[in-house]
Amino acid sequence: MIGKQNMKIQCLTFSLCCIALGPYAFCQDDVIPTNPNVPAERLLKAKIESVVLYQGRAAITRVATTTLTPGLWKLHFEDLPASIQPDTLEAKSGSGRILSVDFTQRATPDAASTPDAAVMDAEIRKINQEIAATVDALNGLQSELKVVESVGIRAATDATKDGGTVKLDLASLDGQLAWMATQRTRIGGLIRTTTERANLLQKDLQTAVNRRNALGGRAKTMQSAEVLLAITTEAEVPVRLSYLVTDARWEPVYSIRASTDRNVIGIEFDALVIQNSGEDWKGVRLSLSTARPSYAASPPTVTPWFVDVREVFERAKTASVGRVASANPAPTAMPASEEMSDASSGLSKRRSVAEKLSEDADVGGSGPSVTYTIALPFDAPSDDQVRRRARIASFDAPTQFVFQTQPIASEGVFLRGTLTNSSPFQLLPGRASVFVGADYVGSTPFIGAAPQQEFDVFFGADPAVTARRELIKKEDRQSGLFGGGLDTVSDYRVTISNGTGRPIDMEFFDRRPVSRNDKIEVNLSASSLLLSRDADYIATQFPQGILRWDLVIQPTPSGSEGTVVTWTVVVSRSKDIEITPLPE
Description:
Largest sheet: 12 strands, mixed
Strand content: 35-45%
Structural class: alpha+beta
Distance between the termini: 116 Å
Helix content: 10-25%
Shape: extended
Radius of gyration: 37 Å
């Protein structure tokens, strides 16, 4: 009898504990309701398993594994981020049948502030005070500027009234004008500095507010998903919940590294990940997609297009679609850890794991949409001030080098490499950082390249090669049968010095005037070397007056002037025609 009473007390205590813990405090050994039509409920502790990152959004997949008995189950996924798009919720299970997926919101009561939250609250108050002080300072500067302007108006009025009389004091007026100019410059500089300060404070405030919201401690709306699942046999069931969130993006970045002797050119293809979705990503399987998931399932309506007599518009659409060649084989799952009997086996296992985690990304998809799946588990906190890099691929690119100089525009002689994308990856447009050895050369836009496509990269100016341009002579000469014409003759010379100690290929660019009137004729004569015979240059650049020579520059001996290129430009017209100025 006593044993039965103790058992009843224990059951009553257990029931009171479950009631006190709230409607979502479920334990593993749930009591199945008497009515089979009423589902048993369970809160799942799900972790983010994978992320597919787009431009501006991300597809999140959470997974939880739990043991379920036959019947109806309502499974709860809590703490969904505020940036979630509820219409995109989807659930999948390894067993049973998903009957519904519902999105719920509920307000949580005020929570006591933690010490970290109190610090953040104080920081937010301080930033708000600084913003208010900055606004007051701007208002004061604007008022001060108005006073200076009013003084200027008064000085101008007095000078106008006293003009032409003995009352006009020129020295005093000059002093007033100089003072006003100094004050305007000073106040303008202060306004710019204060405005920049205000903009930085606004960014700091937004960051602080985001960090404070992540700490909790205030009344907020909790978002969750409820998955209704029917199970026919007892089983351990993995349940996955997927959804889209906003405020997440990635962009391609590249590092192009040339060895000191420029024999090897390596390309590192990375993704720069920025996310402020409201939930941290820890150890997730990250995939980077070039697709753009549509906000709407249906296309927009086509509106009428009207054309009248006065304005006729002609529009053309061009599309460039890159195609990915054969993708890398999908990485196999990492083997389960086994007990190793000796140290050499353990070292071999660690080496195998390191090799798999350092593999290039797996490429999926075709046509305009490509997905890169990263081998290494990825972490990214929910903070838009943090940029995390994910390595997509690294490979060596076959390269052909040529020097390029245009001394009319720049004094440097630049080394240009024509690289071949030897990887199976579609290299997307972005920015590239260029290195030679350990030295950073600079940053350059990168237009992208398909597999096996060539693209140009500049590796900076080489101080061992110089090009000096000179206008030797410029004069006007009479021409024509009776001297009725006028020629302007310009003689140019460029001297190229090669201090590399070896022959180099060079493309040398300059220009000549291009006539836009039949009454003006421009001719290139007396060129010491033939212009380039490159077909693309002849078809596109030569008609625009661009001059190009393809040269092989031998090493310049000590004491020698170097390789010299000379040419003459003649601009002919009638003496009674006045033309626009010619460049010196």
